[in-house]
Design a protein that fits this description.
Layout lengths: L1 H10 L15 H15 L1 H7 L24 H19 L7 E4 L4 H11 L4 H7 L1 H11 L4 H10 L5 E7 L3 H16 L3 E11 L4 E2 L2 H4 L3 E14 L15 E7 L10 E4 L4 E7 L4 E6 L3 H4 L7 E6 H4 L25 E3 L12 E3 L5 H9 L30 H10 L3 E12 L9 E10 L5 H8 L3 E3 L1 H13 L4 E2 L1 E2 L9 E4 L5 E3 L3 H8 L8 H4 L13 E3 L3 E2 L1 H6 L1 H4 L8 H4 L8 E4 L6 H13 L6 E5 L2 E2 L16 H8 L1 H9 L9 E2 L2 H29 L19 H22 L3 H28 L5 H25 L4 H12 L5 H4 L4
Parallel strand pairs: 1-2, 6-9, 7-11, 15-23, 22-23, 24-25
Antiparallel strand pairs: 3-4, 3-14, 5-6, 5-13, 7-12, 8-9, 8-10, 14-16, 17-21, 18-19, 18-20
Length: about 800
């Protein structure tokens, strides 16, 4: 305290070219002041506008649109930190880098939030409420958290343009989505079909296979073995006796049994007919499953045959709801079919087929020309087609179905199985597989070109793109782009109610010309009433009811954010493909994939050149972060307590920057404050304090005896050498998008500077210059530390913008002539 008082007295009589460092400010107060400074001076806007915006100087960046239905979390902080670091760096290289924020404003998350707010649930309730009223309610609530998003992302220090953002619900964006789809339609890449898909009965819509794999839960389900009596037939391979023989069929989905239309056996598998002494009946099972089917000693074998010998046998189904609907085209209904998908891993080796509820079931029955039946409505309840269970939810009906089978003497065994089962990741209800009419993009026709384009992309880490993603592309299936919902971009296909002719509309102008009415909104409640005569038969053209999956919209963002091709044709070439994108590992089958599908189909190009993939942020115990469990610290409190720079450094220096999971630990952020932020503040304070005390300035008038590099002590030469090695390393790694290598170098240099160079050099700043040698040493120390801090402020700027600004304003800007400060932003 005494030394501090003396220093203040001395400095009062000396010129102080460097702005004194206020050590009383907290990290949060210091960063908040810098944020206010950036805002008042329009620093971000100026940093973009002052760059040459010519096409050859443009650095194109795509920002994947998040949903605005919740607040930003640590996963968003990771992606934002990576994006901001890369874009600040290339902006410092003189590149013109626009950074438009985007919002995903359509889709199930918004619909679910709106349903909850309105106190309704499911499509039937929405139709009763009114689709127009519901969609407008979605519109009014979709951006409820944008203000908080802006505050939090800006508090993180990210430079991004919120004022010129894009929204997927804007008419211009939606029109470009229509144009993209029309291009696919014109290339023959769109078709309508039936597909058995993962289906959320809570949301009444199919999901992609990617979405179906997001939430598997360990659950208990009934596992039942059911008797399917064979009908007596001449030439049957089953030994004819006075006892009837029954196929034993095993299933973990009893609710599918009312829709059973066939059973399947493996043609090359060995099957046996056994006599069960407990009930003196004959049963047919795979020989390899015999011991599993009968809990006690295996019953005696009456006869043996291969699966192909059973094919064509007729049986009595467990329920008779559809036995009277057999047509000539369904002559194989309720017979044994052959299929290679049958295995003996579990069950009985005889598989029940309900083609409306299973992919393999659908394929096998389709090959046999068996028309499917579907007694389950869009909300997962049985219809009047099965009157015993009508109105019941399928999963809840399992108990009554099993009871009915037992009463009818058809239940052979009832057990419980624990297994991993897919759940809807949005509604957290069990998924089913259900046959639904869908609109498909024929990705299978694009696979080879997509694979080729992917090989030209720099993936960081490389294995994610050139192994994981590439393997996914090799097996990519046709993409279902339709959803049976309400709040989304309508699929722009009109169908004749008479002759079923289809017409795809690709623009507002085309729609207005066809219907003869003005159109200013493309949402379904505005366009579904628009119609015109069919050119083939004069029937009425009506729009197909589906809307686009929001993944399709996000895949269209490179074009739709610019309203291409209706506007910005000249500048589009400089914004496509993107130089850089970055999102989480889960986007390998999401946004990364949809971007590649559409860019390949439209322009036969990769959609981006460089991508950094980050991993997932988990709670400290390794579990998924959950608001309800409160198993992670409040992000805003962490920002306030430790500052944005510490959080950014912690995240980007963690395994999450290498696409690996991170178990978030607040202690790690605190450690960044201790080892990086405070040492840099102290280094800045130390330099400013003693430079002002000695009246030192980095100019020829004051630095009359500044020694050359060769004349400086070895300690100075060492730290300057390390500084230039750091610059080379940062440039090399940043140009190859290896942030995982950049950050350790930066943090390592900070440690060398603060814990070695400054500690070893303190006495050179303290001592009085009694002779020429001391004078040279002192001048060298000031010159060296000034050069290091000034240069370090630039090296740190992409990753630690607040510390960088602090160093710059206290060390560089303070020593810059007033006339030059206007150009130093």
């Amino acid at each position: 305290m005494l030394l501090q008082g003396k220093l203040k007295t001395i400095m009062a009589f000396k010129k102080t070219p460097f702005t004194p460092f206020d050590n009383s400010l907290s990290i949060d107060e210091r960063e908040q002041r810098i944020l206010q400074l950036w805002k008042q001076n329009g620093v971000f806007e100026h940093s973009v506008k002052q760059r040459n915006g010519s096409p050859e100087n443009c650095y194109a960046f795509y920002d994947g649109p998040p949903f605005a239905t919740g607040l930003p979390h640590y996963g968003h902080f990771v992606a934002s930190s990576i994006k901001d670091t890369v874009l600040r760096y290339f902006s410092m290289q003189g590149k013109y880098a626009e950074r438009r924020f985007g919002w995903d404003t359509h889709g199930l998350p918004i619909e679910m939030e709106t349903e909850k707010a309105l106190g309704i649930s499911g499509p039937a309730a929405i139709r009763t409420y009114g689709i127009e009223r519901f969609n407008e309610a979605c519109r009014s609530s979709v951006l409820r958290y944008t203000k908080q998003w802006r505050q939090t992302i800006e508090r993180l220090g990210r430079f991004v343009d919120f004022d010129n953002d894009y929204k997927t619900m804007d008419p211009q964006f939606m029109e470009s989505v229509w144009w993209v789809f029309e291009q696919l339609w014109g290339k023959g890449l769109v078709e309508k079909g039936f597909r058995v898909m993962p289906y959320s009965w809570r949301l009444a819509t199919p999901l992609s296979n990617f979405e179906a794999g997001l939430d598997y839960q360990n659950v208990q389900d009934p596992a039942i073995t059911v008797r399917f009596p064979l009908k007596q037939q001449t030439g049957s391979p089953v030994q004819q006796t006075d006892l009837p023989a029954s196929l034993l069929v095993w299933t973990t989905t009893p609710w599918t049994l009312p829709a059973n239309l066939a059973v399947a056996v493996h043609p090359d598998m060995e099957y046996v007919t056994v006599r069960n002494e407990a009930d003196n009946a004959l049963y047919i099972v795979a020989k390899s499953r015999l011991s599993s089917c009968f809990s006690q000693s295996a019953p005696p074998i009456v006869s043996t045959c291969l699966g192909r010998d059973l094919v064509g046998q007729h049986y009595e189904p467990p329920f008779s709801y559809f036995t009277g609907q057999n047509s000539s085209s369904d002559c194989k209904r309720f017979t044994v079919l052959s299929s290679d998908h049958v295995s003996d891993d579990a069950g009985t080796g005889v598989v029940h087929l309900a083609p409306a509820y299973g992919q393999d079931d659908y394929y096998v029955c389709q090959q046999a020309n068996i028309t499917l039946v579907d007694p389950v409505n869009e909300e997962g309840c049985f219809t009047q087609a099965v009157p015993e269970f009508a109105g019941q939810n399928i999963k809840q009906a399992d108990t009554q179905i099993i009871r009915t089978l037992k009463q009818q003497g058809k239940l052979f065994k009832h057990e419980t199985i624990q297994h991993s089962y897919p759940y809807c990741w949005r509604s957290h209800t069990p998924l089913i597989y259900k046959a639904v009419p869908v609109w498909l993009v024929k990705v299978t026709q694009l696979r080879d070109r997509m694979y080729k384009h992917n090989s030209r992309i720099r993936w960081v880490p490389e294995a994610v793109g050139h192994k994981r993603f590439a393997n996914w592309l090799r097996e990519a299936q046709d993409w279902t782009v339709s959803r049976n919902r309400f709040w989304g971009t309508p699929i722009p296909i009109w169908v004749c109610t008479n002759c079923q002719q289809h017409q795809c509309v690709g623009s507002i102008a085309q729609l207005q010309k066809l219907c003869g009415q003005a159109v200013d909104d493309l949402h379904s409640h505005h366009v579904d009433s628009l119609s015109w005569p069919c050119t083939a038969c004069k029937g009425a053209m009506k729009r197909t009811p589906e809307v686009f999956d929001c993944w399709f919209e996000s895949g269209c963002m490179p074009y739709a954010q610019h309203h291409y091709p209706f506007d910005n044709k000249a500048s589009f070439a400089s914004h496509f493909p993107a130089q850089f994108i970055s999102e989480g590992l889960d986007q390998t089958r999401g946004w990364f994939y949809t971007l590649l599908v559409l860019s390949t189909a439209l322009f036969d190009k990769p959609p981006f050149h460089n991508v950094i993939v980050n991993g997932l942020v988990l709670a400290q115990d390794g579990s998924k972060m959950s608001k309800s469990k409160r198993n992670y610290p409040d992000p805003n409190q962490v920002l306030s307590q430790y500052g944005a720079d510490a959080l950014r450094a912690y995240l980007v220096n963690s395994p999450v920057a290498r696409a690996e999971p991170l178990q978030f630990n607040e202690q790690g952020v605190r450690e960044m404050v201790r080892t990086v932020i405070l040492p840099l503040h102290n280094a800045c304070s130390f330099f400013v304090q003693y430079a002002n005390l000695d009246g030192w300035q980095p100019s020829s008038t004051h630095e009359t005896t500044s020694p050359s590099l060769q004349q400086r002590p070895l300690l100075d030469q060492w730290i300057l050498s390390r500084l230039h090695s750091l610059i080379d390393g940062v440039n090399t790694h940043m140009n190859t998008y290896r942030l995982d290598k950049v950050v350790p170098e930066l943090l390592g240099f900070v440690d060398e500077l603060t814990n070695w160079y400054i500690r070893q050099s303190r006495r050179r700043f303290w001592r009085k210059a009694h002779n020429t040698q001391d004078q040279h040493s002192k001048q060298a120390a000031y010159s060296t530390l000034y050069e290091v801090l000034a240069t370090l402020s630039k090296c740190l700027a992409p990753l630690l913008p607040f510390v960088s600004e602090t160093l710059y304003r206290h060390v560089v800007l303070a020593a810059t002539p007033q006339s030059d400060q206007a150009n130093s932003v």
